[in-house]
Amino acid sequence: MPETKKFLYVNRKAPYGTIYALEALEVVLIGAAFEQDVSLAFLDDGVYQITKGQDTKDVGMKNFSPTYKALGDYDVNKIYVEQESLDARGLTLDDLLPLTWEDEDDDWAKKDSIKVISAAEMAKIMEQSDVVFSF
Amino acid sequence: MKFSVMISEGPYTHQASDTAYNFTKAALEDGHECFRIFFYHDGVNNGTRLASPPQDDRDIVNRWSALAKEYKLDLVLCVAAAQRRGIADADEAKRNGKNADNIAPGFRISGLGQLIEAGIQSDRLITFGD
């Protein structure tokens, strides 16, 4: 068994309406302490989880989207977003939270965590992962 | 092969727990080793001993308890998910100021780290849910 495994957290559902997105994020945050190779994927309605300007005041639920911005500090910096899912919803990269991380091997340069990729590329990432959580 | 299972839906509403049970039982009977069964989201509702299904239906909770006893399974309910949904053992009930606990025999409550560990330690982690 390899010392570290490739963990992929697949987020497919809208952030509110069901609890899956919130509880998925809780797994990612706990999992970050285990020093595994972690990637996140956002597809289908899951892309709404990381959109800017979320306002949940009127639905009485906690807006947990600011927590995604902390992922970079937990060394979770491979965040894949499916192009087809963005297109189908009329969204672009500009609609998403600017998720970044600081590269300690590059004088702490701030780098983008989000990579927009095709469904075919997403399939490859899933195939290359050892442990896939689907939420 | 060493496997673990994650169940992310509650009993009766959804077939996830039924399918997971059938899968686990078949795999164990086939000689495979189960590292852990982890219950998350509404899946924690599979671990309440207060469930009283009709007598002519399957008893999902007792079925898990019996399988755990037979094969010494590690049935783990996520603590954060369980707190939200009112599933408690004696310690959790005390910690949260509740006057009762409801965890079923063979289950225990622990943290999400147990799920990550299951992913690391098992050859396969199989998820049952949507």
Structure overview:
Chain A has helices at residues 20-31, 83-88, 119-128; strands spanning 6-11, 37-42, 79-82, 100-103, 109-112, 114-117, 131-134. Chain A is α/β, with parallel strands linked by helices and 135 residues long. In chain A, a hairpin with a 5-residue loop joins strand 4 and strand 5. The longest helix of chain A has 12 residues, at 20-31. Chain A is globular. In chain B, helix 1 (16-29) runs parallel beside helix 2. Chain B has 130 residues and is an alpha/beta fold. In chain B, 37% of the residues lie in helices and 20% in strands. In chain B, 44% of the residues are buried. The model of chain B has no long low-confidence stretch (mean pLDDT 97). Chain B is globular and about 40 Å long. Chain B has helices at residues 16-29, 60-71, 79-85, 90-95, 113-121; strands at 2-7, 33-39, 75-78, 107-110, 124-128. At the A-B interface, helix 1 and strand 7 of A face helix 5 of B.
Please trace the helix and strand order of chain A, writing H or E for each element.
Answer: EHEEHEEEHE
Supply Rg of chain A.
15 Å
Please report the two chains with the greatest interface, counting residues with C-beta closer than 8 angstroms to the partner's C-beta: A-B, 17 and 17 residues
Kindly estimate the percentage of residues of chain B that lie in beta strands according to DSSP: 15-25%
Number of helices of chain A: 3
Structural class of chain A: alpha/beta
CATH architecture label name of chain A:
3-Layer(aba) Sandwich
CATH homologous superfamily (4th level) name of chain A: DsrEFH-like
Say what the CATH topology of chain B is: Hypothetical Protein Ychn, Chain: A
Strand order of the largest sheet of chain A: 6-3-2-1-7
Write the SSE topology.
The complex is a heterodimer of chains A (135) and B (130).
Chain A: E1 6-11, H1 20-31, E2 37-42, E3 79-82, H2 83-88, E4 100-103, E5 109-112, E6 114-117, H3 119-128, E7 131-134
Parallel strand pairs in A: 1-2, 1-7, 2-3, 3-6
Antiparallel strand pairs in A: 4-5
Chain B: E1 2-7, H1 16-29, E2 33-39, H2 60-71, E3 75-78, H3 79-85, H4 90-95, E4 107-110, H5 113-121, E5 124-128
Helix pairs in contact in B: 1-2
